[in-house]
Amino acid sequence: MKLELGKIxxxxxxxxxxxxxxxxxxxxxxxxxxxxxxxxxRIASADVELARPGESVRIAPxxxxxxxxxxxxxxxGIFPGTINKVKQVGSGRTNALVGATVITCGRIVxxxxxxxxxxxxxxxxxxxxxxxxxxxxxxxVEDIETHDYEAxxxxxxxxVATYIGxxxxxxxxxxxxxxxxxxxxxxAKEYPDLPKIGYVHMLQSQGLxxxxxxxxxxxxxxxxxxxxxxxxxxxxxxSGNCVAPCDKVxxxxxxxxxxxxxxYKRHGKDLNFxxxxxxxxxxxxxxxxxxxxxxxxxxxxxxxDGVLITEEGYGNPDTDLMMNCKKVSQKGxxxxxxxxxxxxxxxxxxxxxxxxEEGDALxxxxxxxxxxxxxxxxxxxxxxxxxxxxxxxxxxxLKPDGSIEAELQIVIASTIANGYNKLAAKGY
Length: 428
Hints:
Layout: E1 2-9, E2 12-15, E3 20-22, E4 25-28, H1 30-37, E5 43-51, E6 57-66, E7 69-73, E8 92-98, E9 100-106, E10 114-117, E11 132-140, H2 146-165, E12 175-180, H3 184-190, E13 196-203, E14 210-214, E15 217-218, E16 225-227, H4 229-233, E17 237-241, H5 251-255, H6 258-266, E18 272-280, H7 285-301, E19 306-310, H8 316-330, E20 334-341, E21 362-367, E22 371-374, E23 379-382, E24 404-407
Helix pairs in contact: 7-8
């Protein structure tokens, strides 16, 4: 399966009469976006705000971040099973507005939502302080059930990202990158002397607002399966969860998975990237056993020499991570884990909730418990009303002048456990 990803670089975002891209600036029609969002009768009101790098702006509580993309050619449409009909994606040409995002925010859905500072000392902890953001501020109808509110917010973001992505349909990209993965036997023969490497991608699927969707299917009801990596770049996986903001895998991160990106860069050089095993994170022990058994079986069947495993969230999912690590290792496949750590504010407690002897190669994406200070911003998009009940916040976090003291984990993507962040720890 071969996908051409056309990268259209966006350096600014402005309101305009028409949603379009002109000379690197994204213009968006505010009225059309609001009208689109209000098609959902679960949303009482909506507004659109813009947030650019360097501005004195704080966005909270953030629910999802999405990069606008459009399928120009090939099977299916962007976000299959959610926005477009179910049809396999991952081939042909897709154009992406790189440097632009859609961010959904507004009254909190669940306590595990985060914030983004566009400037100041906390801005360096999130990649979205460096993007031009179209923020959709939504207000649900009264007495809406929480899951309905989450679904309404999720769909609003995906619809707006799809609408804006259309602006890139007829634009000549600044760069076109080709990604290709061949069927297993053909792929294995192409570089017979290089180690066959796979990626085990664990999706948050614990329910109760901890959900991720695969071609529109809730991941908690699926069993592990194989994916071509390019399917993920076309939106086959979308976020629908309110997991801890620091390691929440937003829809943006699924579209721009750095593990997949790096494996492709090294493909044919020092490794043979075979593909992705998609699995879930479960609540019940029987489900954890079933999924980890199947993941290990797939790794063995596909003939992997090594795999990288990433998780989403922490605590309970650490057990899924370690069960995968142990069982895959016992199949004779080398394992490297990528995760973040929560050893307490003094860094002296156990970093993960679970551990196995086989977990002896691990990349850390940072300590989410570190306390940081957020200076007041001139403008807030959304509301700060829930800062003290958001994960990472606590009583007294929000100061009268609008400044905040909180754990790093309140920042969106600050320690995300796939490496799309700026923190790392090395140990030898």
